[in-house]
Amino acid sequence: MKKIGILGGTFNPPHIGHLWIAEEVRIRKQLDEIWFVPTRTPPHKETAVLDAAHRLEMLRLAIQGNPHFHINALELEREGKSYTYDTVKELTAKYHEDAFSFIIGSDMVEYLPKWYRVDELVKMVRFIGVSRPGSELQTTYPIDCLEIHPLDISSTFIRNRLGDGEFVRYLLPSAVMNYIKENRIYGYRES
């Protein structure tokens, strides 16, 4: 039986904060692998996200070299909104011998009561709540809390800086930065 952590998100773009959280959780919670699960259409975001092919390729570039990191694209293959309940249900049915943990930031812990079928979901998967700036890990749901030194980086911050032609070099893996440059995405301009 493998112990697998699931880290979902748009990864628009994937940055060092995602990688930092994934590795910290993997090591400190003694997980065998982290599966990055990019979403097609997250239910809590109304804004458009970059084409899935670009996000998937950037994620592949971001995790290359770490044998514990993998990508599972099942949400990209499914039409419509991506609900965690549907993803966990599909993964636990397909990999029934493995134990899954779902990694969320403390900002998402606050919204658990609004999650689709959350009462069933907490019976299917262990939640690992990671501390993030500006929010606390307080909920009535069973959450395995993990305080880590946060990197206050967001994909929105990076996209905005790229669009303004500002410096982002140390916020992204170099392979991801090169991909953004080569494909001129996020309004990339030389700074």
Plain-language structure description:
There is one protein chain. This protein starts with a strand and ends in an 8-residue tail after the last helix. α2 packs antiparallel against α8 and α4 (84-94) runs parallel beside α6 (118-124). The chain has 191 residues and is an alpha/beta fold. It has one domain: Rossmann fold (3-Layer(aba) Sandwich). The chain is globular and about 50 Å long. It is built from 8 helices and 6 strands. The model has no long low-confidence stretch (mean pLDDT 90). The relative contact order is 0.19. Strands 3-2-1-4-5-6 form a 6-stranded parallel sheet, sandwiched between helices.
Shape: globular
CATH topology: Rossmann fold
Give unreliable regions as ranges.
Answer: none
Structural domain tally: 1
> From the helix content, strand content and strand pairing, which structural class follows?
alpha/beta
Strand content: 15-25%
Highest-level CATH class: Alpha Beta
Q: Percent helix among the residues? A: 25-40%
Q: Please list the strands of the largest sheet in the order they lie side by side.
A: 3-2-1-4-5-6
- The averaged pLDDT comes out at 90
The DSSP helix count reads 8
CATH superfamily: HUPs
What is the string of SSEs from the N terminus onward? EHEHEHHEHHEEHH
- SS elements, strand count: 6
Q: Specify the CATH architecture.
A: 3-Layer(aba) Sandwich
Task: Provide a short characterization of the protein structure.
With 191 residues, this protein is an alpha/beta fold. 37% of the residues lie in helices and 17% in strands.
